[in-house]
Design goal:
- The chain contains 9 helices and 2 strands, in the order E-E-H-H-H-H-H-H-H-H-H.
- The longest helix is centred in the middle third of the chain and has 15 residues, at 69-83.
- It has helices at residues 24-35, 41-52, 59-66, 69-83, 111-122, 133-141, 148-157, 163-172, 178-191; strands at 10-13, 16-19.
Amino acid sequence: MIMFNRLPYFVMLQGKKYKINVDFRNLISFENKLQDRSVDNSKKIEYGLKHFYPAFFYEENYNKLLINPELYKEACDKLIWFYKCGREDYHKISGNSKGKNKQIYSYEYDDEYIYGAFLEQYNIDLAYDRVHWWKFKALLKSLKDDTEFIKIQGYRSYEGKEESMKNLRDYWELPKPVSEQERLDKLYEVLK
């Protein structure tokens, strides 16, 4: 029912109304930062708060936020609430967890396919149109099966034994994070 209501552009923190940056690009950037293992967790939180709340973007305002623990916690909670599109279970996996933790898309590597799918299916030009994060996520979930982006996700999540599908899965596999790749490279060096 959340999507049938007006989408939020403000949140209340300690009884005061704060404008938030709702553009999908902002939250994609935040999600990419969250997935970056080279970035310290405190820097991830700082990045999220500064980019989600225009009021805290400048260092002096952000420092005021840090000295008020209740406001800081509430600001973090509202950021996470917004990121999860107002739903507690938005990113939770249901059912059998086998293979479910595998990442099957990346905004960084699949940007052209996402862009093309949105333009084709919704006539939304993601390079120019401002799209609310919740709307973006709803539309992303609703892309048709015949878009290249959805096909690629299917290849990446394939767990069967058919050789041609396994080849497609391997071809479309997302690059491993740099630290993971470095670990594998060292392992391969030792095994040579």
